[in-house]
Write a structure and sequence with these properties.
Layout (H helix, E strand, L loop, with lengths): L4 E6 H11 L12 H17 L3 E5 L7 H5 L12 H4 L2 H10 L3 E3 L6 H14 L3 E5 L13 E5 L4 E3 L1 H8 L3 H11 L14 H11 L2 H6 L8 H8 L1 H11 L21 H11 L2 H7 L3 E2 L5 E3 L3 H11 L4 E8 L9 E7 L5 E5 L3 E2 L2 E2 L6 H12 L5 E4 L2 H9 L12 E3 H8 L8 H6 L3 E2 L3 H4 L14 H28 L3 H21 L1 E3 L1 H26 L8 H11 L7 E2 L2 E2 L3 H7 L4 H26 L6 E2 L2 E3 L9 E3 L11 H7 L2 E2 L4 E8 L2 H10 L2 H9 L3 H10 L8 H15 L4 H8 L3 H14 L1 H17 L1 E3 L5 E3 L8 H37 L5 E6 L2 E7 L3 H13 L10 E6 L8 E2 L2
Parallel strand pairs: 1-2, 1-4, 2-3, 4-5, 7-16, 8-11, 9-14, 14-15
Antiparallel strand pairs: 5-6, 9-10, 10-11, 12-13, 17-20, 17-23, 18-19, 21-22, 24-28, 24-29, 25-26, 27-28, 29-30
Helix pairs in contact: 1-2, 2-5, 5-13, 8-9, 8-12, 15-16, 17-22, 18-21, 22-35, 23-26, 25-26, 28-34, 28-35, 30-31, 30-33, 31-32, 32-33, 33-34, 35-36
Length: 898
């Protein structure tokens, strides 16, 4: 008969290893989760690699154990369990329960004793045992039936390995440990007896009894004196280290059998903890039934579907195409559903061996039949990442359909509910509500070509696409209730939903980039890099790889002997902060900073813009992401146009490459100090409000107060410092951060902050109030109700807590500024449509909105832009917008209009 093998995990050791091995993580409600995550991954790794049929996990009990009765100072040196680990332990117990793994636990017993007792019971039944641990005390259990496996270094300890490591047999190991003691557990042993001495003594005398029975044989020495003096400590230590084999543990083999995972419990746990990857990979979810999914293959069937659409208040839609690029994508099919009872797939572009597959609708007929419903202002359109579907349908190649009416994008809905989560993919969101969708890779059978979906067989395409609309419907019904409960539904319906159309249109239009300007910039920046290289080599006294942090670090800190800063795994840090501090000591750090700046501008903007420029239209088309930030600000990619520098000459040169087409101009509206104006509104500080109402230069006034000089005596340097302080306060900057920014002492920086708050006392009151409210509620909101959790606001870790406080202060300010810009965009778009102007919005960059305007419309559209932006919301201080126009975005070449 085959000997059964049981794996017994030292769960308490696993918990601590997981806690220290994984970087700190929290879920959106602030619960620390890294120990749970590490424990889950370690457990799953063992199950996957070893496939045990029999398994148990031993856990320490809370409070004193029987060894404390023997020795009150047992483990007295051990610090208490960290607070952020203690709160995770109950979840680890729940994880074990969800996995249906036998848990060994008994009050007054340690995990080691439970393992020893289980080993005693099960080896008596003839079973083999693998103890999963790195704890050396458990080695005393090793035998011909028992091995210890440490998964951290993949080391298996049998009797031979124990003797090789310690020089004593397993039988002598307990007495060996009794002599050496264990400082971690405060087990005294015999002072001065280390591993080598203990090994020699045990080799000669075998046991403590043998040693002390022949102690007089030992040569006279300090060691002999200590051995004699600490005889009681040695025997006490042995009693403390000896494992109890009589604890109450299951004694039947069947009790150790690995059971089926309780996927419902595991899903609930992983959803709460926000372990999205584990949820997707480890939890079985319900495959969506395809019984109520239907193909619509002819006009008669299409007409029947249209009859059902005629009375619908909501329609969920998803487009299938032959490209991710909406400007060139051709419609391959559309899926629709109205509820959770049925879904339809309407194919129009599938091919096989280059030939159009039969049993499909004509694309033009399909589009025209659906147009009335898609363009119905009363019908709510639901979908996931609707911006893509909007742009595809709006393309002339696909009929130019305008999705009208309210838009509920379930991706945006998920973001509004949890702006800090890692994934907003439809598949991941559906996993959390027990729905497993077919992945795109599965649907196209690994085909990675852009037009892969055109070759998917019709029934397979039906199932895949209908799953998506069915999943979006399920998300929609759940999201709508929670959005309503949290007061976020108006934000979705009135701001984020309508903005989908605006952004889709902006992406489609794009902006012209002048190829000649880019070529000139590429050449000039390349020449500058060569020039800086030579200067860097001269300053270093040798040539080296400028891109290598290690080589640079060796030169800066070993050869030039500049003050060392922060150390990394590969050597001394040479990041921006370090180089900024070092540039006052030597010319090389400043040259490196300048080199890196030019190199980044060239690769990130000049080279990338040239690569992304459409050769036919000469335009680049960025992608705007509504779900890219926790504050609500838009982000953009391919290319990222949000971070083009404007204050440097190089940045302005890059902006000058963005141009208007012939006969048009670029018109830009830029909010003036919008964050500070929002701060004034929130704080109700009388001095700040009065200054903005008077139209004062707020930075100059701040400098006047901080430096105690008349306004007219404020220098440019004073104003610069005041500007740094003004915006630093908005972002919750500490005295340490301000000191670094202004290159002053921390004491002087704190005095600036103190004087600032003395003058603007309302701001200090606001900051204290918003932090207090965040502590109570666990989240902060903007003026429009946008919500952001600050889970670590009550953390015992000072660094985490102070970071959360800065988020709490900054989010209402920056988030409200983002909401103002979005409302302005909607206002401008509405006014342009109402007035039938040809002008169009093409860019949004931080606080700036850029339009492309025909020459003849410039004056009227400028007025429209300024009025729309300044009246986007009503604050207790005026919103001010500066306008500029010109042939390109380089401000030094543009003319002030208003």
């Amino acid at each position: 008969m085959t000997t059964q093998e049981i794996y017994i995990i030292d769960g308490s050791a696993y918990i601590y290893r997981a806690y220290h091995a994984v970087r700190p993580l929290t879920n959106s409600s602030g619960l620390p989760t890294h120990a749970i995550y590490g424990f889950a991954t370690m457990l799953k790794k063992l199950i996957n690699e070893k496939s045990p049929q029999y398994l148990a996990i031993a856990l320490d009990s809370r409070g004193p154990v029987f060894r404390h009765d023997m020795f009150s100072e047992y483990k007295a040196n051990r610090p208490p369990m960290p607070d952020d680990l203690a709160v995770q332990v109950p979840y680890i117990h729940s994880l074990i329960e969800a996995y249906n793994i036998l848990s060994l636990a008994e009050t007054g017993q340690e995990a080691d004793d439970l393992i020893a007792s289980s080993v005693a019971r099960m080896t008596a039944l003839g079973c083999r045992i693998v103890i999963v641990s790195g704890d050396k005390d458990l080695l005393q259990l090793v035998s011909d039936q028992v091995t210890l496996w440490d998964p951290m270094n993949d080391r298996l300890m049998d009797e031979g390995a124990v003797e090789e490591k310690y020089g004593v047999s397993v039988a002598g190991l307990l007495d060996y440990f009794a002599l050496t003691g264990d400082s971690a557990d405060n087990i005294p042993g015999v002072p001065g007896v280390g591993p080598k001495t203990a090994q020699k003594l045990m080799s000669r005398y075998q046991t403590l009894e043998g040693l002390y029975g022949a102690v007089d044989e030992l040569k006279k020495s300090k060691m002999k004196e200590r051995i004699i003096a600490h005889q009681d400590d040695a025997f006490l230590s042995r009693d403390l280290i000896r494992l109890n084999r009589e604890a109450n543990v299951p004694s039947q083999l069947e009790q150790y059998v690995v059971q089926q995972v309780d996927h419902d419990k595991l899903r609930s746990l992983y959803t709460e903890l926000e372990f999205h990857s584990l949820l997707k990979n480890e939890v079985k979810t319900t495959k969506v039934s395809t019984d109520a999914f239907f193909l619509v293959q002819d006009e008669e069937q299409l007409d029947g579907l249209c009859q059902q659409l005629a009375s619908a208040s909501h329609v969920v839609l998803d487009t299938e195409t032959d490209s991710l690029n909406t400007r060139v994508a051709n419609l391959v099919g559309i899926s629709l559903c109205l509820d959770d009872k049925a879904a339809w797939y309407l194919p129009c572009g599938h091919v096989e061996d280059g030939q159009r597959v039969s049993g499909q609708l004509d694309k033009d007929v399909l589009v025209e039949k659906l147009r009335p419903f898609f363009e119905d202002e009363e019908v709510v359109k639901v979908g996931h990442n609707l911006k893509y579907d909007y742009a595809v349908l709006a393309s002339p190649r696909n009929g130019g359909v305008q999705l009208s009416g309210p838009l509920h994008d379930t991706m945006i809905g998920a973001w509004l509910l949890d702006p800090g989560r890692r994934s907003y993919k439809l598949d991941d969101l559906c996993e959390e509500i027990d729905l497993r969708l077919t992945s795109f890779a599965e649907a196209v059978k690994g085909d990675k070509k852009d037009d892969a979906f055109t070759r998917v067989e019709l029934n397979a395409a039906k199932d895949y696409s209908c799953e998506d609309v069915y999943g979006a419907w399920q998300l929609f019904t759940r999201q709508r209730e929670q959005l309503k409960e949290w007061g976020l539904l108006p934000l979705l319906e009135n701001v984020e939903g309508p903005l989908v159309r605006v952004l889709a249109s902006m992406e489609t239009v794009g902006i012209v980039v002048d190829a000649d300007t880019l070529a000139t910039l590429a050449h000039d920046f390349g020449q500058e890099l060569v020039r800086y290289e030579q200067q860097i080599y001269a300053a270093a006294g040798k040539e080296f790889n400028i891109q290598s942090p290690k080589q640079l670090g060796d030169i800066l800190f070993e050869e030039l002997e500049l003050p060392k800063g922060r150390k990394t795994k590969t050597g001394w840090s040479t990041d921006v902060k370090v180089l900024e501090k070092l540039k006052n000591y030597h010319e090389l750090p400043a040259l490196i900073l300048q080199y890196r700046n030019i190199a980044k501008l060239k690769s990130t903007y000049v080279d990338k813009l040239a690569a992304l420029r459409d050769p036919q239209s000469g335009r680049v088309h960025t992608s705007y992401n509504q779900c890219g930030t926790a504050t609500g600000r838009l982000s953009s990619s391919n290319p990222n146009l949000q971070n083009i520098p404007i204050r440097t000459e190089e940045g302005r040169r890059i902006r000058s490459a963005f141009v208007a087409e012939s006969g048009w101009q670029l018109l830009a509206g830029d909010y003036s100090q919008v964050d500070l104006r929002v701060m004034a509104h929130y704080s109700q500080d009388p001095s700040l409000i009065a200054a903005f109402k008077r139209g004062d230069d707020i930075h100059q006034q701040t400098a006047s107060q901080i430096f105690s000089v008349a306004s007219e005596l404020v220098t440019a340097e004073m104003r610069r410092a005041a500007k740094t302080i003004n915006f630093g306060i908005v972002y919750g900057m500490s005295s340490y951060g301000l000191a670094n920014q202004l290159d002053v002492s921390r004491k002087e920086a704190q005095s600036f902050i103190d004087r600032y708050f003395a003058h603007f006392s309302g701001i200090k009151d606001f900051m204290e109030k918003v932090v207090a409210e965040a502590r109570e509620k666990g989240f902060v909101t903007t003026l429009t109700g946008r919500r952001r959790s600050v889970p670590e606001i009550n953390s015992s870790n000072r660094t985490k807590r102070e970071f959360a406080e800065r988020i709490a202060i900054n989010t209402p300010i920056q988030g409200t500024a983002a909401d103002i810009m979005k409302k302005a965009m909607l206002q401008v778009d509405g006014e342009l449509r109402k007035s039938a102007f040809q002008a169009r919005m093409i860019l949004q960059i931080h606080d700036e909105l850029v339009l492309e305007v025909p020459d003849g419309e410039l004056t009227a559209v400028a007025r429209l832009l300024q009025e729309s932006m300044e009246n986007a919301v009503v604050l207790d201080v005026p919103l001010t917008v500066h306008l500029d126009s010109g042939q390109n975005l380089g401000k030094d070449e543009r003319i002030s209009l208003i």
